[in-house]
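Dear colleague,

Thank you for sharing your sequence with our group. We've completed the structure prediction you requested, and as agreed, I am returning the results in plain text so they can be pasted directly into your records. Please verify that the sequence below matches your submission; if there's any discrepancy, let me know and we will rerun it promptly.
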Amino acid sequence: MVDQVRSIKRKDESQPRGPNLWSEYEIEAKSSLTDRTLRNLKYGDAFAVMDDHGDIGTLKETAEGLYYRDTRYLSKFELWLEGKRPLLLSSAVHEDKAALSVELTNPDVERGAEERLGRDTIFVQRTKFLYGPCSHERIGIKSFAPVRRRLLIDFLYEADFSDMFEVRGTRRLRHGQIKASVTDKGTVEFVYRGLDRVERRTVIEFSPAPLVVDEGRATIEVELAPYEHTSIFVTVSCLDSEVKPLVASSFLSAYRGIRKARRRATEDIATVRSSTVSLNDIVCRATADAYTLISYGEYGPYPYAGIPWFNTIFGRDGIITAILMLWTDPSIARGVLRTLAATQAKEVDPYSDAQPGKIIHEMRHGEMARLREVPFAHYYGTIDATPLFVVLAGMYLERTGDLKTIREIWPNIYAAIGWIDNYGDLDGDGFVEYARAEESGLANQGWKDSHDAIFHADGSDAVGPIALCEVQGYVFAARNHASRIAVRLGLLDLAETLSSQAERLRADFEQAFWCDELGTYALALDGEKRPCRVVASNAGQALFSGIASPERARSVAANLLTADAFSGWGIRTLAVGQPRYNPLSYHNGSVWPHDNALIAMGFSRYGLQADASRVFAGIFDAARHQDLSRLPELFCGFNRSPHRAPTPYPVACAPQAWAATSIFGLLGACLGLELVHDECEIRFRNPVLPEFVDELIIRNLRLKDSRVDIRVHRYGHDVTANVLSREGQAKIAILK
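Please find the predicted structure tokens below.
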């Protein structure tokens, strides 16, 4: 077979996207991620989105594909049996998310007048997983025919090398060039020479070698004796000229490698088992999703935000995920802190919204980011990641006593406080505000970063700089945590200054943000310091930080649990009746699990564990209705109705790191769980278990040099805790 080489032209758009839409980088919903079952796999910077057959691209303009470093290396990959698509029997991702197993059989096939292959004669089992930037697949084929059969297996494939932002809907004027070639051994290679001068290659290898192969199809012939079994192996490698490629492993060695990696990642974490089977399913799925999304880099583990849109480092998402997982696995917090310290901004760059001391919002490796067609190569347009970085550092120290790591990143903590003082407070009024430096940046830079998320009670846009409610709480908590860290480092004068600044901010916040007529805090202050008198979930996150007075915290909690704010499945981002309320929107009426978890942790801080339990019950019921018991990034905010599940949001990520780990934040909030390293004490403060749980067993809970298994049991409204086993001197206390 001679080598074949063919140039493939891509369709270039004649017009770019309009500037008013371009600046917001919103995801176009050309197709829904929920209109059919999708399966996904991830390993490091690579991930795959497939249909339930294990195929890619059977429908056009979807998010399906094999991706590596923000580029789609494979846009189509289909398996056909005797010229027809096989019939689906079953499809499931393994419990530990290591691999996808799909079971198929043949439809009726006619081969002329004489020969016929009746349906259900051939059994096909596909096993797919990612290891490094490679997709490995074994196709097991077994014949149940009583006679010898010859079968033709076709593979159809394409590689479009679309940038992730193109897949999300951004149009481009120009592209690089794609060439396809076939070697004499039947290997197919697509080469994309990008405008950024990076060469990206997709290499497809088959074993056994195809009978016929070209740049779009490979055909393998197999001959099976009665009841005989054989296998076909396919490896798809994603290669980037700027990244050292991994040596391709065999299917079996790669499979052993990924299973060992998964076991190592979770061998030391705390685990939860309950008397409720559905809760166990949710917790197992949350654990699998969390560790699927965690990537391991130079500075330790880091949870990537979500699949398909956000498989990369996000500062805010990583920090909140680490906070939610802090009691189960504090090593995630250490990895997040060290990674974000290493990527902290050191200079002013308006295009990337960077200033010295600021913590990164997002990192991208694709062609569009490298060419600065989008500003996200290293983008710092987030107002909350910097104070939350300090908050996580303080919480991590309290949980672990790891002063060595905190000393290592202290210059970064100090620089983050410096950013708050020098750049975060744009007008010197004591509040931290945001305003993008250039039109190419994000208009809204809190966690609700949709273009329409911040507004006044009359429905008009809030004109910046914008001071968000919850961000003031983060800054308050950051100053207090930094103060306690400074004490540990012997910097007593600095500690006193930080503590005084926090108390001053608390008083100013109460005066400027409280809306007595609403019984809650304003969503934000605009550039003229006018409050956005809107009932939104942001006020609940102010409770998480502890900035609210106890009396007003109770009012906020009651407000968020009214029928207008609480859908029955969870607390809405925006209450019914508010301007711009839309239960179908991204941020103006939807329900986000991580938002609910942080709010529940805020309730627990103020002794409102019963209210936290109500939130937990809603999110738990929502999770029970989800495919694979998986909490998605968000779902729609319609009222709960009998015999109906929550309404999915069409382009929500699933899995999403902070959604998956919200279950751990909710559990910890209900239990009032506190792990105090310096006193080696595990505390349950006013613990509550929801009615759907009678008993929890927490195993391998680590504190200092201790390891504890604890049984938590509910008797009516009372909760007890019993030590099942203990290594070390850790104390257990229930505080009322």
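Summary note from our side: The chain has two domains: 4-10+37-262, 268-671.

Kind regards,
the structure core
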